[in-house]
Amino acid sequence: MEIMTDKRFRKAGKYLRALIIISLIGFALAVFLFIGIFIYAKILGPPPLAVPQSTLYLANDGAVIGESNNGEKRYWADITNISPHLTDATIAIEDKGFYDHHGFDYKRIAGAIMADIKAMAKVQGASTISQQYARNLFLEHDKTWKRKLNEAFYTIRLEMNYSKEQILEGYLNTIYYGNGAYGAQAASQYYFGKDANELSLSEAAMLAGIPKGPSIYSPLASEEKAKSRQKIILQAMQDNGYITEQDASKALNEKLVIVGKHQHTVTKTAPYFQDAVKTALKSQLKLDDRTIELGGLKIHTTLDMNKQAAAEKIVADRIAQDSDIQVGMVAMNPKNGYIEAMIGGKDYSESPFNRALQAIRQPGSTIKPLLYYAAIEQGFTPSTTILSEPTTFRFDDGKSEYSPHNYNSKYANGEITMAQALALSDNIYAVKTHLFIGEDSLVEAVKRFGIQSKMDKVPSLALGTSGIRVTELANAYSMLANGGKQTSPVLITKVEDYKGDVIYEAKKEKEQVLSPDSAFVVTHMMTGVFDPKLNGYASVTGSTVSGKLTRQYAAKSGSTETDSWMAGFSPQLVTAVWTGYDKGQKIEIVNEKSYAKEIWSDFMEEAHKGLPVQSFKPPENTVGVYVEPGSGKLATVNCPVKRLTYFVAGTEPTEYCTDHLPNHEMTPEKYHKHHHKVKMPWYKKIFPWTS
Fold first, then answer.
1. Band of residue 36 on the pLDDT scale cut at 50, 70, 90
2. Catalytic: 365?
3. Rounded CA gap, 280 and 550, in Å?
4. In this structure, how many other beta carbons lie within 10 angstroms of the beta carbon of residue 12?
5. What is the pLDDT of residue 13?
6. 8-state DSSP, 346
7. What is d(CA 421, CA 556) in angstroms, rounded to the nearest whole number?
8. Which pTM value belongs to this model?
9. What's the CA gap between 335 and 358, in Å, rounded?
10. pLDDT by residue (tens digit) across 269-305?
11. Pick the catalytic residue: 365, 425, 466, 601?
12. Residue limits of the Glycosyl transferase family domain (predicted)?
């Protein structure tokens, strides 16, 4: 009997020793696994915290003009820009031990496990804020053990690599508050029409209650349940010492105004402009589509809302609804190249093709200011005269010839000055100048003006037969307006990432690439487009719109059979307008031929309302003298018409006009002496540009 008992004890001892050894091995494995998990988490490093967020497009005054999202409103707010009431309310109701644990609340976990075992299902959660944040960042929201294990691992990584403030900030920016609003900022704007840092205690307690069940506790779903949840949260805040009983009572009785509307709902403002911005983000900043659409970026653009609205209204009013003619328009600040308004077509919904940026069309005579700039650099002046008459140009090969024509086949049949040729848009003068200075000169000048479209080295290039873009012409004229400094079209001034860090900022330094003196001489010649003093065999080309202009502009029109242009500027703004048919049909309806000029003049006047009147300031190395427009010579007291004209210093005329001497009896020498006896008004000595 004793032998049997002894055997039993020895056998039980063997099992006990085996159990202890297995337990020790299991414990060692568990410790090893636990340490391994932490080492692996450390090796992996901090997990990325970025989540899909709405990218906002902002006008130059900070107004939101567009937003990209997949039906989810997300805006990142720094923890310092979230009301402390909301952070306290969230911690009180979601995870009161948040600052004490390392990602897991073991008491809550134990209670949840017991409840799950009792129900034989996953019925109760004990997730901390860290765990919920991990789930919001990386995982699906299904209630499975596999997901729980993955969530635990991500929680460990978060707690090992980020501070409590960073985790809380991330949680508050990713949690869902219902109605498409993700994060405290989007929710605050949606429910209360204010930023997250402006929430009152009552509003914060209401908001903190929504994530438990947005379809249940949203004040828009059930005011009664939302109020009941708010009361529970205020009590929890009081119990945890965040607020007093008086604070809770006051907040509970506060009457809240629920807005229920997302602030940034406008997505159709300047759609052509927004498309151009997205293209620039890809081509210039090398951002991919996902980053642009869901990166939570803030795109600060150059768009001026008032100018854009004016442009859209003017185009809609001017172009007949039943007309198939299209329009491309760009308004640009010449000082920095900022595009302040853009029209890419009559109707974006019908055609998103951007004719301001994408269409390459013949610019016609709007190319002539660039030609005359090149000529002035080679010694031409506004008073240089060339014979204007029907001309056929024959070339060295003996076979090719070219016979350009003036509009309506009108010619001076005599010599005219460059200033008058530009104002009347004389084609013979332009082609002769082009051939005289060399065809390479215009091609090179066009490049210096920033135009990248291919130019054909042919005689007709002087008449704008090689296509360019509207933006290119506006940019070229900007360089005349700003005194010859290099510009390029700018759509984006700054880009911020979701944290508010600046990842791109437009450069502001501009290189001097043109002669400021020659640029100003051309600019002043371009003001002659509206000056009847330069009328000759025809009226100046801007005469049809000059009556509505209230300040000085420099401009040039251009037309081909299929394209109509008007471009020009003040010191503050450059605008280029093209109108025509997409398929290149001839513009034959009379009204349609005037669209570009009418749109340009209407817009320039509207855009300049409220702006100070500025004149084009002559550089020091230019000289302004009064000339007789027909001859280009110095005007005398007997000349019926005289016009202030600027020249590069040293190139101004020295010969006086003798065409209007009385009976031609007075010699030029006597007249010269007589002329200088004429007293100049005092104000012209101080302000020589006054007429």
1. low
2. yes
3. 36
4. 10
5. 64
6. S
7. 12
8. 0.74
9. 24
10. 899 999 999 999 988 888 877 678 777 899 999 999 9
11. 365
12. 62-238
Residue 119 clears pLDDT 60, i.e. is over it: no
Q: What's the confidence (pLDDT) of residue 97?
A: 85
CB 311 within 8 A of CB 341: yes
Q: Which of 67, 94, 592, 652 is catalytic?
A: 94
The rounded distance, in Å, linking the Cα atoms of 121 and 670 is 117
Helix-strand-coil split of the chain, %, nearest 5:
45, 15, 40
Instruction: Record the tokens describing residue 639, joined without a space.
Output: 């000349």
Span 99-113, average pLDDT: 66
Inter-residue contact 639 to 618 (CB < 8 Å): no
Least confident range from 149-158, 359-368, 425-434: namely 149-158
The residues facing 622 across adjacent strands are: 648
Name residues whose C-beta falls within 8 Å of residue 175's C-beta, 6 or more positions apart in sequence: 132, 136, 182, 183, 184, 211
Q: Which residues face 638 on adjacent strands?
A: none
Contact, 419 vs 358, CB < 8 A?
A: no
User: Could you tell me where the DSSP H helices lie in 175-326?
Assistant: 184-192, 201-208, 214-217, 223-239, 245-253, 271-283, 289-294, 305-318
Amino acid letter, 579: T
The residue behind tokens 């600019």 is 523
Dihedral of CA 621/626/631/636: which sign?
A: negative
pLDDT at 109: 57
Residue 375: in which H helix or E strand, if any?
A: helix 368-377
Q: Is 159 exposed, middle or buried (0-12, 13-18, 19+ CB in 10 A)?
A: buried
Cα gap 296→501, rounded to integer Å:
11
Taking only the tens place, the pLDDT of each residue in 138-195 is: 655 455 666 666 667 677 777 778 888 988 998 898 888 988 788 899 899 999 999 9
CA angle at 586 for the pair 580 and 589, rounded to the nearest 5°: 80
* Dist CA 134 CA 131 (whole Å): 5
* CA–CA separation, 591 and 545 (whole Å): 14
Length of the chain: 691
Domain chopping of the chain, boundaries:
8-44, 75-253, 622-686
Helices (DSSP H) in 378-469: which residue ranges? Answer: 418-424, 427-437, 439-448
**CB contact at 8 A, 570 and 617:** no
Nearest to 622 by CA among 430, 429, 382, 448: 382
Q: Are the CB atoms for 542 and 555 separated by under 8 Å? A: yes
Residue 557's contacts (CB-CB under 8 Å, 6 or more residues apart) are 364, 365, 366, 425, 529, 541, 542, 565, 566, 567, 596, 597
Segment 499-526 shows an average pLDDT of 93
> What is residue 37's three-state secondary structure?
helix
679 has pLDDT over 90: no
pLDDT at position 112 is: 55
Q: Which residue has the tokens 């159990």?
A: 19
pLDDT digits (tens, 9 = 90+) for 198-242: 999 999 999 999 998 888 999 998 999 999 999 999 999 999 999
